[in-house]
Write a structure and sequence with these properties.
281 residues, alpha/beta, Rossmann fold, Universal_stress_UspA, Nucleotide-binding universal stress protein, UspA family, UspA
Length: 281
């Protein structure tokens, strides 16, 4: 059984992510957990504990949260009907998004978090908002971010850029391997060399990666002397990609792309479900 966490703020974006996740795992036995977190706009523990009006506000927010979850439950039945393989659980928590997700993960086995995302400014060139980036940073579970307006497509072609600088055994690749094997996906490993030959360690890591994906079609590609974002964009001209997957290697590769100005370049060109794979533990 797969356990999938779906944070929701009841927006069209989050519903889009929900429909993607349920479509992706429609043939599998899954429990989907729908998590809505809520806090007052201004939240102080002492005021909540000591003020009747603040307590009333908290109760009203909780009721709004519960009503929204009930509406999702109804919408699931209307949209997907009965699927004996799927179970739905609704969770309302007085918490912030990231700490609410962390609390859930500490108490529940979870294979994947799927969430909707849009740029914080609404600008088309910004791919991820601050909440999504914070989840990428702080959550030690694979996270799939579904961009605004991205409709489900069977993940037949998955792009996996890597600098080959990590021990792949130390990262949570199981969900990516599972998605690839159950959908008969072709996984494209992509390395940008900047003109240098692979080191001995990189060659060993490449061999390990090929072993990890031995149960599916895995093809490795080398590009030279270009930005990784440009390489990703170039690759899209030769393949109809359905998912982009990357390891969260903060020391270099991932950080260089997503926490510097290149985030804007990627946002211009990528409109794919984006799977972020953290380290184990």
């Amino acid at each position: 059984m797969k356990h999938i966490l779906l944070p929701t703020d009841f927006s069209d974006n989050s519903w889009n992510a929900i429909t993607y996740a349920i479509s992706l795992f429609k043939e599998e036995v899954c429990t989907f957990y729908f998590l809505n977190t809520y806090t007052p706009v201004v939240y102080r523990v002492d005021s909540i504990m000591g003020s009747t009006s603040q307590l009333g506000l908290a109760d009203a927010l909780r009721q709004t949260s519960l009503n929204g979850l009930n509406q999702i439950n109804d919408k699931l039945s209307e949209t997907f009907g009965a699927n004996p393989k799927h179970a739905y659980k609704m969770l309302s928590r007085f918490n912030y998004l990231v700490s609410g997700i962390k609390e859930f993960l500490s108490k529940n086995e979870t294979d994947l978090v799927v969430m909707g995302t849009q740029g914080a400014t609404g600008a088309k060139e910004v791919l991820f908002g601050s909440n999504t980036v914070q989840v990428f940073n702080d959550i030690k579970c694979p996270v799939m971010a579904i961009p605004e307006g991205c409709e489900y497509e069977k993940p037949l072609e998955i792009l996996f850029p890597t600098d080959l600088q990590v021990d792949f055994n130390s990262f949570q690749l199981d969900i990516l391997k599972h998605i690839a094997s159950t959908n008969q996906s072709k996984v494209h490993g992509l390395h940008v060399s900047m003109g240098a030959e692979l080191t001995r360690q990189q060659k060993e890591n490449k061999a390990e990666l090929e072993t990890q994906f031995s149960d599916t079609t895995f093809v490795f590609h080398h590009y030279k002397s270009m930005l990784v974002t440009a390489a990703i964009d170039k690759f899209q001209t030769s393949a109809k990609l359905n998912v982009l997957a990357m390891i969260n290697n903060k020391r270099s590769f991932f950080e260089n792309i997503f926490f510097k100005s290149t985030i804007n370049q990627l946002g211009f060109h990528i409109h794919l479900p984006f799977l972020v794979i953290p380290a184990k533990g």
